[in-house]
Write a sequence for this structure.
């Protein structure tokens, strides 16, 4: 039942909230929001509604609750520079997201679970906080006690077959490690399935 609910959320947001196959299938089969009117719905969305959808989309993509997301936005507003870009950087630099982006997990939910269960070290020390913010120069590795076991048995092959890694991460498939080389910039900020500008507008009402 939970998977069906998540697939409906992906249809609602118009983008796969998870990389799970069920989400892709749901969007391909019914590329419209759930509801009794189906694809024939004539409801016109207001500017507020559009802004809300973008905020909900980003919040659900990263698996955050309302308080976590709003707190992160407040932090972004206190920093210098473009608030929308800063928000994306803060979201992307979460440890669970970095693990997902590097290819250690197929979904952010799987990455979060692995982090919570202390499967990763950051600079040689175990970290089990998904919201931990990775910094330039830090190296994320699978803990030695976890290597070669369970889901990590074929991780080297999985990482070698990964097609693309964000420019701010340097992946070492053989060592099953990823180094943070900076912060998301350029295309890493722009190629997101949500619009940070509309999120800023939502909170600026």
């Amino acid at each position: 039942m939970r998977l069906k609910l998540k697939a409906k959320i992906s249809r609602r947001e118009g983008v796969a909230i998870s990389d799970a196959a069920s989400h892709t299938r749901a969007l391909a089969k019914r590329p419209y929001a759930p509801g009794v009117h189906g694809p024939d719905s004539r409801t016109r969305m207001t500017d507020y509604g559009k802004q809300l959808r973008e905020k909900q989309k980003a919040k659900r993509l990263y698996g955050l609750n309302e308080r976590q997301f709003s707190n992160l936005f407040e932090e972004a507003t206190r920093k210098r520079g473009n608030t929308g870009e800063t928000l994306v950087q803060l979201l992307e630099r979460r440890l669970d997201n970095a693990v997902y982006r590097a290819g250690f997990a197929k979904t952010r939910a799987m990455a979060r679970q692995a982090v919570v269960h202390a499967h990763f070290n950051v600079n040689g020390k175990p970290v089990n906080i998904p919201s931990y913010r990775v910094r330039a120069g830090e190296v994320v590795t699978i803990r030695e006690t976890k290597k070669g076991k369970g889901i990590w048995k074929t991780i080297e092959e999985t990482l070698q077959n990964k097609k693309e890694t964000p420019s701010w991460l340097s992946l070492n498939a053989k060592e099953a490690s990823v180094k943070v080389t900076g912060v998301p910039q350029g295309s890493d900020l722009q190629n997101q399935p949500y619009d940070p500008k509309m999120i800023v507008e939502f909170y600026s009402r």
Observations:
- The longest helix spans residues 47-61.
- The first strand starts at residue 120 and ends at 122.
- The mean pLDDT is 89.
